[in-house]
Amino acid sequence: MEITILEKTEHNIKFILEGMDVAFANALRRTMLTRLPAMAIDEVLVIENTSVMYDEMLAHRLGLVPLTTILEDYNLPDKCDCEGKGCSLCQCTLTLEKEAGDEEIMVFSRDLSSQDPKVVPASGDIPLVKLAPHQRIIIEAYARLGRGVENAKFQPVATVAYKYVPLVTVDKSKCTLCGDCVEVCPKKILRLNGNTLATQNTLDCSLCEACVEECEAGAITIDSKPDSFLFKVESTGSLPPEEIVVKSAELLKERVQVALDFANSL
Amino acid sequence: MSSLSERQKYWPVIESYFAEKGLVGQHLDSFNRFVREELQQVVDSVGRLNPKVEGYFVDLGEITVMPPSVREADGSEHPLYPNEARIRNLTYASKLFLDMTPVRQEGSVTTRLETMRIYVGDLPIMLRSETCLLHGMSEEDLIKHGEDPNDPGGYFIINGSERVLVTQEDLAPNRILIEEASKSSSYTHIAKVFSTSRGFRAPVTIERKRTGELRVSFPSVPGKIPLAILMKALGLESDRDIAEVISDDDEIRNELIVTIEQATPINVMRGEEDEETSTRNNALDFIGKRVAVGQTKEYRLARAEKVLDRYLLPHIGTEEHHRLQKAYYLGQMVERLLELVLGKRTQDDKDHYANKRLKLSGDLLMSLFRVALYSLTRDIKYQLERTAVRGRKPNIRTAVRADVITQRLKHALATGNWVGGKAGVSQLLDRTNYISSLSHLRRVVSPLSRSQPHFEARDLHSTHWGKICPNETPEGPNCGLVKNIAMMAYISVGTGEDAVERALYKAEVESIEKLRGKRGAKWADVFLNGRLVGIHPAPQVLAKTIRQKRRAGEINEEVNIAYYEDTNEVQVNCDAGRVRRPVIVVENGKSRLTDEHLRMVADGEWTFTDLLRNGIVEFVDAEEEENTLIAMTPDDIGPRTTHLEIVPSTILGISAALIPFPERNQSPRNVYMAGMAKQSVGVPAANFKFRADTRSHFFHYPQIPIVKTRAMDSIGFEERPAGQNFVVGILSFEGYNIEDALIMNKASIERGLGRSTFARVYESEERKYPGGQEDRFEVPDRSVRGYRASESYRNLGEDGIIETEVEVQGGDVLIGRT
Predict the structure, then answer these.
(1) B212 vs B486, higher pLDDT
(2) Is the pLDDT of residue B169 over 60?
(3) Strand duo B93-106 + B116-124: pairing
(4) A72 and A97 part of one domain
(5) Which of A181, B458, B671, B695 is the most exposed place for a label (fewest CB within 10 A)?
């Protein structure tokens, strides 16, 4: 297995995974989506809510706010000593207190104040509820670790997708340099470079094969590299993207080991 | 094909129309007219109360409608706003006051006593009508009173529930319909007319038997009377007169021989008449023998005359001098019938929308109020007579029991059981979403029974174009019987006949009375609201002048005129209940609506009324539409074009207008969509926080559709949206999608896709029972009979009522009543 990182930003990572089959690539994707834990608000105590929004709806919105997570700091509730009752080792309390003056105001996720400075909303710009003049909310929320299988709010990732690595080849002997393929390509992969048809940014190719259809001479072939995948991982902000990939790979390994151990014990 | 922008450019006209009339304008206008005019007319038709008390009667005067109010249990009274009525289960109604003047008569001296303004009952008030407290309120004020500013109004609040009076479709009254009969019946052809006057419906039929004889039937006379005898009783004594009134066509007169011969037994020779025996008296006696069997001759004659005046064609009049006119009308019916027999005319199309009238809430309330007032007058008379019998002085103030009218109106509106045995007239307003409410207020039901097939009545008719939505109708037994009016359709409220009649005479219509019923075949017959008023030599010119006068505003905008070339007759209509729609006037191949006008409308300088007043846009009914050539787009205008559609897609109703590209769908799919749009969960009303509907759904994340129609903007769908844009993948996935089954993404649902809140009301009350027993709300004590596990009561507050914001399960107690 070989990983080449193509691009990395605060929330996104793009890399090529080589030497693995589709089953593994998909297993990795699904691990990131459903198995890797992240913090999210799971219980809400509404002390006061005079806004137009129902308590249930507000609680649901709070749950969807991504929280920054340090996986080592908290236990998963089912693995915690408190046996899931909720303790400082597996729970973090956030409070929200806001009252509108004479003007209506919007309550944002940044208004949530956390007990643990490391567990805060990943983005402060998420609107929660609008308060009309003199409306007030006082809320105590309890965040905990959870997995994507349980509820989508615990997913540390927004998008995880992979595709085959495209291989675009031009048979120069057949090419008539008509340039039709250049026009038709939606990703601008092909380029006329003097008297040769050149390719650029082939990783962007969406494998739509519009150029193949357009090329009468049959000079272009689009293929994909076997056993290598182009991954794109977008974090919700709860964990850094590279950590998501690494931790997921570890988790996957553990889980495979569990399966193997079980198979061997039979 | 004109460009998209070209086809869309007339939308500002439609928006100005909605801005003025609202989406339920027909109900509001109809109710306003009822309160302003018809209420008083009903009172005037009663006029005077004549109790059987010597020298005492009561004159009824002006009726006044007060602003809606409520009387509390402690006797205090205050103005009632609709939302208070909704929440407190009250009726949103106004007090009615009637001026009553008792009159004493002693010999020839009459003394009018002091006029008293007496409270006679409560009238439920339509929301947003002129009488409603919300009328003319600004948006902020509406919000302050707990209303949704986008709520259309047009419904009533009875005991806290919102009730709609569903528009009823009916066969047009006072119109002659001729039909061929089925082979199995005893007659070959039939002419029918539903003569309706002041809520009294009197069907008159003329049948042609296989022998060729004509017989008439009308209410209160058993059996059928030979036509000639009836004509003679009405005053056309000679056979010649009868023939002249019917037709001057020899072929038609030939058909009359059998009929006229039937009357020979009662004929009296000229010169043999005396006071006792005349042809007319014999004819009257013929009728008298049927209606007053075994009475004296004098009584029989008087009775026959009364029957003719009251029950034969009452829409023409109920006085003695109307008898000749009735004879002319019967002549007209016979002419049509015989023309059908001779193949000179075709059967009338019952499903043609010109032969239909819609009864709106105002008309329905009028018939209800008339009955309620009659029972009040009966009650007053009874009360007055009772006090008189006891020897006390009659006092109307104590004789009027306001409950009579109040209860009559309220009961009919609450249950939907109308006078005349109609059920389901008033329905609970559908608040599923904004569209369903609007659509409910624009519904039209046909009284035809749903058990019989009635295939033709259910079919879409070409005259439904622009009036009735072609797609929005339920599936199943009510298909085609329950309809919805199209976006631009408007229902006439009716204007005075007299002004129109005068305008017709001015336009050189020869009055029928002057002609004494003798109409030549050459001149065209002119009808006003189905009544023959005269003849005209150049009907095309007449139609043109009347139209011009209407466009110039000289006669009411509600008048419509149509000339039928094939039968050479002119139909002028100004009655209520015609479905009409606006179209742009085209003159000399040019649309009268210029770009400059459009700009003024779009900028708000001009309203829709300005367009109407300037003869740029006019309303046509189904009848006048038969004389028009309406271009679909400006490009289609040809030399003979008379009108231009404003926007062709307004043939659809509110619900079907939400479908993008409906013309590309299989038509039943549009029907299903129009039905399902009314079931989607959305935001039913912006005041949902201040409402207490028994069941209501509220959508958490409604969205504006990605693909929308232009009509959505005009209707305001995006302000009160329903539904969400789903991303769907269509693939078989090993057959899990069989029969429209679908697999949903778990994460998307957890993120809030399709989330909604459901609310419902549980009610209970503390009652006192005879015998001292009393209900109490409390947390029940163990000793109470029927005590459940104390678990069930854990969420009850001290007052015995469930606390707010607590989780409850099935079986939990919400109100502890002991």
Answers:
(1) B486
(2) yes
(3) antiparallel
(4) yes
(5) B695
The answer to whether the beta carbons of residues A217 and A247 sit under 8 Å apart is no
Within a domain: residue A264?
A: no
DSSP B730-782: ---GGGTTGGG-----HHHHHTTTT-EEEEE-------B-TTS-B--BSPPPT
Q: Clarify whether residues A54 and A147 are in a common domain.
A: yes
Do A91 and A135 lie in one domain? The reply is yes
Is there a single domain that holds both residue A55 and residue A110?
yes
Find the mean pLDDT for residues B187-201. Answer: 81
pLDDT at B455: 78
Tokens describing residue B130: 């002129």
Buried (b) or exposed (e) across A73-93, using 16+ Cβ within 10 A?
ebbebeebeeeeebeeebbbb
B755–A52 C-beta distance less than 8 A: no
The confidence score (pLDDT) of residue B247 equals: 76
Q: What is the Cα–Cα distance from B556 to B573, expressed in whole angstroms?
A: 11
Based on the fold, state whether residues A15 and A57 are members of the same structural domain: no
Distance from CA of A26 to the nearest CA of B (A): 17
For residues A85-112, give the mean pLDDT: 92
**Residue B695 belongs to what H/E stretch?**
strand B695-699
Q: Domain containing A175 — which CATH number?
A: 3.30.1360.10
Report the gap between the CA of B158 and the closest CA in chain A (Å). 28
Q: Kindly tell me if the per-residue pLDDT of B26 is higher than 70.
A: yes
Instruction: Give CA–CA dist B542/B508, Å, rounded.
Output: 8
What's this model's pTM, rounded to 2 decimal places?
0.88
For residues A120 and A73, state if they share a domain: yes
> Average of pLDDT values for A88-112?
93
Identify the domain boundary among A127, A153, A179.
Answer: A153
Nearest CA to CA, how far is A46 from chain B (Å)?
9
Residue A242 within a domain? no
Q: How many CB atoms lie within 10 A of CB B373?
A: 24
pLDDT at B135 over 70: yes
Note whether residue A258 is domain-resident. no
Of A52, A55, A148, the CB nearest to B805: A55
pLDDT score of B319 more than 60: yes
Q: What percent of chain A has pLDDT over 90?
A: 67
> Cα-atom radius of gyration of chain B, to the nearest Å?
31
- Cα–Cα distance, B755 to B761 (Å, whole number): 20
Same domain, A131 and A63: yes
Task: Tell me which chain B residues have a C-beta less than 8 angstroms from the C-beta of A60.
Answer: 700, 752, 755
ipTM attached to this prediction = 0.88
Count of domains forming chain A: 2
Best B683, B696, B751, B757 residue to mutate vs chain A (most A CBs within 10 Å): B751
d(CA A207, CA A224): 8
Domain ranges of chain B: 176-349
Q: What is the mean pLDDT of residues B118-144?
A: 92
Condensed to tens digits (0 to 9), the pLDDT of residues B785-808 reads 878 888 888 888 888 888 887 888
**Chain A residue with minimum CA distance to B745:** A152
pLDDT for B154 equals 93
Given CATH 3.90.1150.10, say whether it is the number of domain B176-349.
Answer: no
Residue A133: what pLDDT?
A: 93
Same domain, A173 and A197: yes
Burial of B279 (0-12, 13-18, 19+ CB in 10 A): buried
Q: What is the structure's pLDDT at B406? A: 93
B757 contacts A57? CB cut-off 8 A: yes
Give the pLDDT score at B786. Answer: 78
Nearest to A151 among B700, B750, B805 (CB): B750
Q: Which residues form the domain of A88?
A: 39-153
CATH of the domain at A98: 2.170.120.12
Most A-contacting residue of B750, B757, B806 (CB-CB within 10 A), to test interface: B750
Residue B682 neighbours by CB under 8 Å, 6+ apart: B432, B433, B434, B435, B699, B702, B720, B721, B722, B723
- Which residues of B are annotated as catalytic? 740
